[in-house]
Amino acid sequence: MKIGLLGFGSMGRTHLYSVRNIPFFFNGEYNIEVASVCTAHLDKARDTATRFSIPNYTDNEDDIIYNSEIDIIDVCTPNIYHYNTVKKAILAGKHVYCEKPLAVTYEQARELATLAKEKGVICGIVFNNRFLSPILKAKELVENDKLGKIISFSIKYLHSSALDTNKNAGWKQDRDICGGGTFFDLGPHVVDLIYYLCGEFDEVMGKAQIAYPERKGVDGSTWQTNADEAFYMLATLKNGAHGTIEVSKITTGANDDLRFEIHGEKGSIMFDLMQPNYLELYDATVKDGDYGTRGYKTIECVNRYPSPAGIFPGQKAPIGWLRGHIGSYFEFIKSVFENKQFSPSLDDGAYVQKILERATISSKENRWIKI
User: Fold this and answer.
1) Short-list 148, 358, 135, 75, CA closest to 260
2) C-alpha R_g of the chain
């Protein structure tokens, strides 16, 4: 199958890397190729195609979407363009692999999810953290009732990238392009992980923060910050669990710090993306001894994946951030070849969009919002 790659920023590069590395990490006869790349500027598209040996290039996405030889459209463009691009691709009968967020409004996202079902194409949203081995282990523990009833959770995704006000703002800091801000950029990942591991949301209370109202804009001139630099959320889930969600790009000392704790009646789990090879488990069902027996156990997840994965570079080898993207892309390709729904689906993307939207309304109106 041939893939048309739309956008070649950091995520476009990541997706190309993932496609080309799938044969190393997975057994399977899946013949796939990134056959064309589209960027906003033709010279960049030409340079990208030359450097990465991509057969075709263009600055017009329609050249790829309406090309009968292209089977899959991979969307790595800025958020505000997702809706129109994905809609055109679905209507053209293409399978779609779309970076998060699916759209900038829940109404748009819901429409795309419904349309994908009607047209019978396989579509997926990129929630790559689901495919890290510790997250898959966490999912297994929750589903096997090792934690029991979920009582509480906390999750944070922290960056330091927006602390320097003398640095030109990027498009992800501009509401007119990103659709939101830090919450629309980092928020989908953490909202999805709580949804994936703990269940559906019932009620949210959000609070946006702009710590630096004035900074340099994209063009270097003085600019009024128009999107949140950090966002804080309280949430209750349908299962009764209570928790907190925090995303920030103004956290001093942070790198790519995604951390969570989930606490249940029988046990607890902890994860830190900066230590991606391990999951911490506390088993409260273990009988305590006179001098102590209980405690958090470090589970070595590393590259331990069931077949057909885990073959390279070996199950004891450490994993990293890119491994989640490779796993996500493989499962999507596998779903397309087998003509079965991919998870996370556009329904999942739309659900996460609903939570983002409700929390944003909550921040503006300073009240709890039911989901």
Assistant:
1) 135
2) 21
Element (H, E) at 366: none
CATH number of 155's domain: 3.30.360.10
Cβ proximity of 4 and 73 under 8 Å: yes
- How far apart are the C-alpha atoms of 159 and 163, rounded to whole Å? 9
Number of domains in the chain: 2
Dig out the tokens for 49 from the structure: 């195609």
Run of H or E including 64:
helix 61-65
Residue 287 lies in a domain: yes
Q: Is residue 271 part of a domain?
A: yes
> Which DSSP category does 173 fall into?
G
Instruction: List average pLDDT for each run of 10 residues in the chain, which is 371 residues long.
Output: 97 98 89 97 98 98 98 97 98 98 97 98 98 98 98 98 92 86 96 98 98 92 94 98 98 98 98 98 92 91 90 91 96 96 98 97 97 95
Statement to judge: residues 142 and 110 lie in one domain: no
Print the SS3 string covering 272-286: ECCCCCEEEEEECCC
Residue 367 lies in a domain: no
Residue with tokens 């991606």: 276
The contacts of residue 153 (CB under 8 Å, 6+ apart) are 194, 198, 241, 242, 243, 244, 260, 261, 262, 263
CA gap 307, 333 in Å, rounded: 16
